[in-house]
Amino acid sequence: MLADANALPDGARVQPHPDDESRRLIPVIDDFDTKYPSVNMDVAPPSSRTYREHLTDLLPPSVMSSIEWPTRHEFIGDLILIKLDDHQRPYGSEIGNALLLQHSRIRAVYEDHGVSGQFRVRELELLAVREHSTPGTRTCIVESGQRLWTDPAKVYYSARLSHEREGTLACAQKLRALLGRSIDVCDPYAGVGPSLKPLISENGLVRKLFGGDLNPSAIELLEENIEHPSATLECVDALTLSTRNDMLASWDLLLVNIPHDSLSHLPQLLPLLRGTGVIRGWAVVDESDFQQSELLLQEILGMDVELEIRRSYSANSNLCRFEAWIQSE
Question: From CA 66, how far away is CA 98, in angstroms rounded?
Answer without folding.
Answer: 18
